[in-house]
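Per your request, structure below.
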């Protein structure tokens, strides 16, 4: 094990969110509502990474995420990886993938859109995954996934 990895304590059971761009770390914390969790959370910030230069990592004890929660993370950072840990072993490794639809995650930037005027969930279709273009289901407004405002912000 590399020395940098040792800086973050080992986890008996839970989830490791790895390869988070350091400038996105606090968005990930917000989106997953980590501030409301009672689990032990370890955050490694600005760790050296061969792949990324710098990365951040979050370890959350006794917490396992649903696919829905994973999809939300792709809005912030498409390259994060999630490891499920049981008894100190990695039992599953998932890459976050951009989903076909985003439900209740992103705000529509069109102030006249029904989703900004009625108490309802937003729905976006991901129309170009490579360029990260999403389109509002209700008003057809397009926006870039890098510039979205999240509902949780
Ligand atoms: Zn809209």
């Amino acid at each position: 094990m590399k020395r940098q990895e040792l800086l973050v304590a080992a986890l008996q059971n839970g989830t490791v969110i790895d390869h988070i761009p350091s400038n996105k770390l606090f968005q990930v914390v917000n989106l997953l509502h980590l501030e409301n969790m009672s689990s032990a959370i370890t955050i490694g910030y600005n760790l050296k990474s061969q792949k990324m230069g710098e990365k951040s990592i979050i370890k959350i004890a006794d917490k396992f995420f649903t696919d829905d929660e994973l999809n939300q993370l792709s809005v912030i950072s498409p390259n994060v990886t999630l490891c499920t840990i049981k008894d100190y072993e990695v039992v599953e490794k998932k890459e976050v993938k951009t989903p076909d639809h985003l439900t209740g995650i992103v705000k529509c930037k069109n102030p006249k859109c029904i989703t900004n005027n009625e108490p309802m969930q937003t729905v976006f279709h991901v129309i170009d995954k490579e360029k990260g273009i999403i389109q509002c289901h209700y008003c057809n407004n397009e926006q870039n996934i890098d510039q979205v405002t999240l509902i949780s912000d």
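The longest strand covers residues 41-49.

Regards,
D.
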